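Input/output pair, single chain:
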Amino acid sequence: GGEQLLVASERGWLSPARASLFGEAARNLGPLVRGDLTGILNPSDRSWYLGPAVTVSALANLDVTVTALAFGGSSGTEFGDDGGILLTRLQWSF
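Output:
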């Protein structure tokens, strides 16, 4: 998958996929908690990306976001070789 991404980047394309399906949904789960879900599907090679995230307002000016990046598909596809990542972000507003 990495070589395809490099070729697409050299040509100025955003993605090596001929077409992609993208979806996003978000909802406030409570007064201080927000949930987000993002997904991309490459219908040509059936690889996919799924990104759930939860943001919690921990203090008056401090938000904590936990995001998971999950990738799937066969080896050599757009998202198939990427595995998964777990991220945490602290946002302090002043």
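The chain has a mean pLDDT of 87. Helices lie at 2-10.
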